[in-house]
Amino acid sequence: MELLRSYLSRVRIPEPTNRIYKQECCVSFETPKSKGGLFVDMNSFLAFGKDYVGWNYEKTGNPVYLHIKETIKPVSEDRPSKKPTLLAIGIEGGFDNNEPEYEVSYEIVILPDYVTLPFPSVELPEKVRLAVDAVIMAAGAERKEQISAWTADKKLVSKHAMDLKQLDNGVIVPPSGWKCEKCDKTENLWLNLTDGSILCGRSNWDGSGGNNHAVNHYNVTGYPLAVKLGTITADLEAADVYSYDEDESVVDPLLAQHLLHFGIDFSSLQKTEMTTAERELDQNTNFDWNRIQESGQEVEPLFGPGYTGLVNLGNSCYLAATMQVVFSTRGFYTRYYLNQNLKMAFDNALADPTVDLNMQLAKLAHGLLSGKYSLPATKKDDVGDMTNSTLTAQEGIPPRMFKSVIAASHPEFSTMRQQDALEFFLHFIDQVERINVGNPNFDPSRSFKFGIEERLQCPSGRVAYNKRHDYILSLSIPLHKATNKKELEEFQKLRAEKDAEGKELSADEIVRPRVLLKDCLDCFSAPEEVHDFYSTALDARTTAVKTAGLTSFPDYLVLHMRKFVMEEGWVPKKLDVYIDVPDTIDISHMRSKGLQPGEELLLEGGDSGFKLVANEDIVTQLLSMGFNYLHCQKAAINTSNAGVEAAMNWLLSHMNDPDIDDPITKEAKSAPQHSDIDPTKVDTLVSFGFEEELARKALLASDGDIEKATEWIFNPPTGTSHMDASQSSSTTVVDAVLPDGDGRYRLIGLVSHIGTSTHCGHYVAHIRKDGRWVIFNDDKVGASKNPPIDMGYLYFFERIDS
């Protein structure tokens, strides 16, 4: 007892605002039910399993812990079963779910010698008794986060909704083809419910997202409510309505009326939902459910390393399916499991490892890949006797802490609503890239990254090249190229006959179009007309022809099938289609060739001479950071519109220039020329292994500073590329800073979706492991007998090394 008294200064009585972890270890998935129980640090209130509590003592020196242990209660054989009085499972008065009951015990443990003291005990110092009682009585942080996620879904009615002013300006909003009225953004668009303007959303700190045009419009006009395009479905409650005045997502009870003002007829949308096509889709949902989940088939449960399921936390299947595939790739397996043990991740973590993404990624990786938690679960028999228990499918691990960290910067993923697996994958990759900034060789997200080059040719014959980086290849599905057109024609006749007789089609009678994946890939590269394109050669707006190709082939290629489209009348529709996907594909022909001999580039400032003007996207993003408009223009011009990061660095370095407030002259700054670069600096970068053209471009963007140029090469500003087309471009474009190789790939996994919308339904993963297909359906893991290869939403391909 004297030993404990000597450590009283290291014991804290928790405040109401303290987060107390007592259900799960911070660095593993150990719980009070685990063999060694759980140890709660009585100073930081973090919890650790028996194998990991010593690490915390070494790191913090905190010696006093509350040891919580839960053991299964013995059940009397002659205990009568209670008659249920509620139609529910596992609650008082409901049906018995045969889950074992647990008895909780507590004791005080003092490290490093694991001296134990009983609790409760009147001999314990009062401070210890008060602290332990507070920990026991408090709702655990894990439980608090779950509750807050549920309550986060409860939006309030906007104070502006009932008397919202709407202008009679004749605006009619089309069901598709939206574009920001102030820039070229086609995603993250918001419809202002007062004047019908369509503008892009807020900009993120790194330049991603929108350009703040929607919120800027509110600042100018004061029109408070906007609805996010793409979220308007038959269920208007799912629509994302935002109040700029109240600065939060809100409910608009009159949304249907407000949408009708702009030609979006909600009443017709309701009726259209019950068309024949929609009824067929509803019927097919049952078919999808059975086939994608392989229901009705005897699936052999699998256990061991790499075969651990993830517990559904409440509509978290999008996360589970995505992470199972991601951690089956070499990059993530190596980075967070093979080359980083839990001790290393914990030692490098912040003071609170529960909010450290690297720590939680390592925890999740070891949970999924070690096999430690992939064991058959023990279940009581029908009378609750554990002695006659049976081994069933595994319990899986709950990714609570990981979800909490990865969702912290995204309001949607913080909720308990279903989400789009594609959106989550992109958000996840973005977060991983951020925590590995400065260490590109250790960044596993790079294995998904590739370059895209778009070529635009105007009627003058001149061309322009735009380049960007991406992590997914999003593919349209050309239904007109279906390979089973004859069967589809016969099906249409049968459907007409059934309709005439007032009968419904059975699921077995429905025929879906079959489209080759090759045709979807060809659509990506096919020429496409771009209307309203401004040609500096013609000094007029015209129609250009756009083609696209890849500047690099990633280690892992993710294909997104655009199965969700918007029809006339704003009717959302999921394409009822099969995609025939081969085991291997070759996309070598999709390699971009860059500027070709004889091609002439369109000039940015017109044929009369090159005049560089500030890129408005860069200016807008700098404005959102609080900089002066004139200063932002100068920063963009003086960095040749290289990007937000380069412009901001210039701005910070030139804030005190005597001419910083001088107006910009009519003759904008001429673009820096390659001849202006010091050849000795070029030679220095070439000696580092970089191509001469890349070295020149980096020095141009970095004012001739070698150190900044090197950083620019490894971490180019968002929206820029290393391969600006030039007359000296080679016949094949290669992105020097990205993984690259042959264009041959093998299918290793897919994420399938069941339901009529990406924001409802269910996601399941199928992964090729050890020469066979395996189904990952939340916590259920088993050998797949009939993987639904043709029903994927996201396909994951691994490059075949030559």
TrEMBL record:
Its EC number is 3.4.19.12. Residues 613-654, 676-716 form the UBA domain. PROSITE patterns: UBA (PS50030), USP_1 (PS00972), USP_2 (PS00973), USP_3 (PS50235), ZF_UBP (PS50271). It catalyses: Thiol-dependent hydrolysis of ester, thioester, amide, peptide and isopeptide bonds formed by the C-terminal Gly of ubiquitin (a 76-residue protein attached to proteins as an intracellular targeting signal). Residues 308-800 form the USP domain. The active site is at C317 (nucleophile), H762 (proton acceptor). Pfam families: UBA, UCH, zf-UBP, zf-UBP_var. It is an enzyme of class 3 (hydrolase). This is Ubiquitin carboxyl-terminal hydrolase.
